[in-house]
Design goal:
The structure is a homodimer.
Chain A: H1 6-22, H2 34-41, H3 45-57, E1 61-64, E2 70-73, H4 82-90, H5 116-131, H6 135-139
Antiparallel strand pairs in A: 1-2
Chain A binds a DNA duplex (30 and 30 nucleotides) through helix 3.
Chain lengths: ~160, ~160
DNA sequence: GTTAGTCAAGACTAAAATGGTCGGAGATCT
DNA sequence: AGATCTCCGACCATTTTAGTCTTGACTAAC
């Protein structure tokens, strides 16, 4: 239960990777492209592309077009919370559905709904939890082999 | 994101209702059947039936067959944690999929996966949160109009 | 200016999960 | 024993998700 979608996973992986590449000792502010991230993390390229698009639209990352283009983080890793990332990909948190509901899907139960209030508490706690953790936390303690310049290798074997 | 399924919602509603019926002043240990719960909470009967089945199989509730049969809670409301209920309905908690994975779906990312460890921490926190809350917490402070004996009313208008 | 590499955006397919429905098995009462 | 009321378990339809493909627009290098 409460599974994250693959897209969400991929988003976090990508951001973690970008953070590591950008903020490691040697190569600062290097732009990484979709293909590189996908290959390094064994993620289907096209799907990752869509994920990165969404992140770019939310200005979590910045896109740079053209040859030698790609993406860079839009903020410092410590300023990118997990909550923000997940929201960008999967929409707002909704343990209790009734909270963000439009006119349709009237939630016929609302009148007698005794579980709503407690669930909202749970939801609030989870949100706080996800907001307290950032991409930086995912980078820490990870050696990670830096791939310095593999922009145009013929690695498709 | 992190939405609960309708079934999970229904499970919690049903348990809350059963708890209220059983542990209110007047009528103790009354057996309630699927139809009553469904009508009282505006839940599709057949779907609720499946939910209650699952709960019964996990021994969260006890089933009693035959006329005047139905369900009663298998434990005190304070001993039924939300975590247990959700697990019964939606399977084990799996923010990070890779945690409970069989041989198939090998998670190609595992080798370089830097998000796994942090996510497990999040998951653990959430689990603790859900384990700390019980059906009793959902009953507290709820007046709730007790429906004393409506087993066989013709209420299907 | 041309070319090649990159992101952007959408339609499309396939598979899985979810929501919802059906007829049957077991138990109780008359 | 029969009728009725209940739970049980397999079944189908719809939605969501994962993944693919195609087309287009933008940018930098040559």
């Amino acid at each position: 239960m409460l599974k994250l979608s693959k897209k969400a996973d991929y988003a976090l992986m990508a951001l973690q990777y970008m953070g590591s590449v950008q903020f490691s000792d040697l190569t600062r502010a290097r732009v990484v492209n979709t293909k590189e991230i996908a290959e390094e993390n064994n993620i289907p390229v096209e799907l990752l592309a869509k994920v990165l698009q969404a992140l770019a639209k939310q200005e979590i990352i910045e896109s740079h077009n053209g040859p030698k283009g790609g993406y860079i983080l839009g903020h410092e890793p410590r300023d990118i919370t997990i909550a923000k990332v997940l929201e960008a990909i999967e929409g707002p948190l909704g343990i209790a559905d009734c909270y963000h509901e439009n006119d349709h899907s009237p939630c016929e139960q609302l009148e007698h709904c005794n579980i709503r209030t407690p669930l909202l508490k749970v939801q609030e706690s989870i949100y706080q939890l996800l907001s307290s953790m950032t991409i930086e936390d995912m980078m820490s303690g990870q050696p990670l082999i830096i791939v310095e310049s593999r922009k145009t290798e013929g690695v498709n074997s």
